[in-house]
Amino acid sequence: MARIENSQKHFSEANKIIQKALALDSKNTYILNVAAHIMAYSGNLIRALEIHKQINLIDPKYYPNLLGIGYINHILNQQDSAYNAYQKFEKHIPNTEVLQFNLCIVSLAMGKNQQALEHAKKEKDPFWNLYAMNLALFAVGDYQQANKLLKQFIDEGGETEQGNIARIYAFRGEINKSFEALFKAIDLNDPSLIALLNYPEFRKMHNDPRWQEIIRKMKFPNGHWLVKKLQLAQI
User: Fold this and answer.
1) For a pLDDT cut of 70, what percent of the chain falls above it?
2) How far is Cα 135 from Cα 29, in angstroms, rounded to an integer?
3) CB 89 within 8 A of CB 70
4) pLDDT tens across 161-172, in order?
């Protein structure tokens, strides 16, 4: 229930529900993992990371926790920690969908473009492979192939992938196209935006008035790090 409320941007209700779950079983690793996601998508990144560390103390073998640690550290620009978390997960649960994609984007954030391309090639899920190859090929300078794959991604994704299309354009530095896709995603009430807007690719757009409009339209809680950043920019 908390996940569903959160995906609908009912952040306050999601928090109330997850707190009820925690009151019933405060040491349940699955409940805590959901709580960490709720905190992350509500923009409380530090609290989310604290919960992930708590899970690790309760059960170091609850390996899905490593994915959350990787995600939060990536957003916080602690890329070495993010990469290490994903690698630990791979050691215990290899061949997991999206894992190589995550290793790819963290490698890109570290400036290790060739390493990112190698991870992209290893991603076996067709959607995430196409997504990763889009980013990695552009990063290594193969613009012709990157443009070809971007067209394929847009053609196959259509209206449902506007948030991810915006992320690719942001990575490429095509800011106007990124904003165009973001506004389409907002109009479609794309639930993935609560996660996507946290990512480092969009940081170059944070001072643009259009970004400020996006954040206002999302109706994030006041404690969300993006809302706080917006408030500081307006002082």
Assistant:
1) 99
2) 34
3) yes
4) 999 999 999 999
